[in-house]
Write a structure and sequence with these properties.
alpha+beta; archaeoglobus fulgidus dsm 4304 fold; globular; DNA-binding
Amino acid sequence: MEYGKPRRVSLEKLRAIQLKLAEKVVEEDCFDRLENICGLDVSYKEDKAVACAVTVRFEGLRKIEAAFASSKAYFPYIPTFLSFRETPILMKAVRRLREKVDVFMVDANGVLHPYFLGAASHLGVLLDKPTVGVTKKLLCGELLEPRRLESGVTMAPIVVKGRIAGAAVSVRGLKPVYVSVGHKVSLETAVRLVVETLRNRMPEPIRLAHTLSRAYARGCQQTLRT
DNA sequence: GCGACAG
DNA sequence: ATCTTGTCGC
């Protein structure tokens, strides 16, 4: 409700933290098997933040578990500082999961960020787990020439400060989603995972987390049943 | 200084 | 993100 109060930590300090954590990001595949994928998202209800972590089996995309966490939103939304708003509540939801997770998919950017540390990467480093970032709108960077892959998938690399930081991926001529490495995964694998879990505009794990966190925030018990 | 800007 | 109903279209 009121974020106007002076923060005890300056944005310059937070920027320094991002630069530090960005050095720890690993852009290579660091997982042997791919059985479960967990979608992550946060919804808001006035000044309350609700996070949902929903795990699905990669084969068939069937939901096998969902965990929630809620708290007051202590940090405002400030472009390029999203992780400081959502990482705490997402960590809380993830800790409540019981089933093993191989890769996390977050509704946020990974290294597709002006300082190469979007919320998906920030979370990945804190969890020390593989994460992929996916968004519906471009935060930064310039798109290179689109490339049509075999399965009718169109991919356009995105460059940030001279580095390929992500890719615009679109299927069946739909509006693209922006994919980037979060942590411990390669861009190639990140794109593959998104394409293989894409039923609608957003990959299924994230779409589910979005629906569930929103239902939880609005107290829709019925939707949360199954 | 100006404009852009994930959720 | 959120405030919000019906409605146009594949």
